[in-house]
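Appendix C reproduces, verbatim, an entry submitted by the partner laboratory led by Prof. M.T., so that reviewers can inspect both the input and the predicted structure.
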Amino acid sequence: MSPRCQLVVLRGRLWINPSGDAHALQCVARTRKGGRCQNPVESGQVLGLHEFQLGSAGYVQAYGSIGGGEAVDVDRWLAQHCTLHDTPDVTDYETTELRRFDIVRDAAHIRVHRVDVAYDSDPVDCAKESSTTGSEDKITENTGPILEAAARLRPCPGYINGHDYQDWYIEATPDLLLALAQLARDRHRHELADRLERLSKPLCMEPLDPVLSYDALPKSWCGRTVKATGLPCELHIPERAADLGRCTWAGPGAQRICRSAPLEGDDRCTEHAARCRAVKGDGEVCDRPDCRVPKHRQAPASDAAVEPAAAQRCP
C-alpha cells in the first residue's frame, strides 16, 4: 500500500521519509530483548495535511501545522523515538528515516502552481544535498524556469506528420536546456553547464563518420554553433567538400555536403557522377541525370557547378 504522504514540516523545514508515510514512523530504539521497538512515534494523527509553498518552484503537500507553534515534540520526532524511549541513554536499533527534503533530488513531490488557482499556504524551507554548495534560494529560484519549460513539452513528429509511432519524440526546448544549464552552474557542474548551453543553440549537425550511407545513423556530429537551424558551419559548406574528401555535387539550393566519398579519379560519388554538370544560359547547372542534350554532353567534365564562369554555357 502506498504511503499517504512522505513529507512533514518540522520547525519550518521540510523533511521526507523516503521509505514510507512521514506520520506513520516507528520507533527505532533497541528494546531490552535486543529487537526494534514496535511502538509508533506518535499515537494517532496529530498533524494535518496541508499545502506548503516552495517559492517559484511550486508547492508540496505535507504533514504540518499551519501558523506558529509545534504540535509535536520535534526533537523526539527527528530522533524517531516513542514516548517510552524518549530518554538520553537510549540505544538505537535502526537509523532514523527522516532526512531533509532536497528540491532537486525530490522534485517528483513538487507540484507546479496553476494560474487559475490562488494559493495562501505557508512557505517552507527546503534543503540542498549535503554534497553541494551555494545558495538554497538560488537553487529554488532556478527550479521554477525548469518546471515551467518542462510543462510546455509536447510530442513532435520526427518525420513529416509522424505517421508511425516511432517517428514522434519529445524535444528538449532551448529554454529548458538553458534552465538546466543554470541549475548545473549552481551545482558547480560548469562543464555540464557549458555543454547544455551549447546544445540550446543551433548546431551544425554534419556527421563526422568517414564513411556513412544515407540509410545509416551517424555516431558523431560536428556540433559547432551556426546562425540558424539546418545550416552547416563554415567548415562543412559544399564549397569545402573537395578539401574534406567528399563528393563535390551541390544541387540547386543544396546547403549540405553529400555524405558519400567520390569515385576514384573523379570528384563525385557514384550517384552524382551521372548528373549533368553543364551550365545553361541562365547560369543554372543542368544537373539532370544521364542528360541527353547534345551540347551538354560535349561540355568538359571539369566544368563543375562551383565554377560557372569557366563552364561552357549552353542554351
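The beta strands are 7-10, 13-16, 48-53, 59-64, 99-100, 122-123, 155-157, 168-170, 279-280, 313-314. Additional entries are available on request from the coordinating office.
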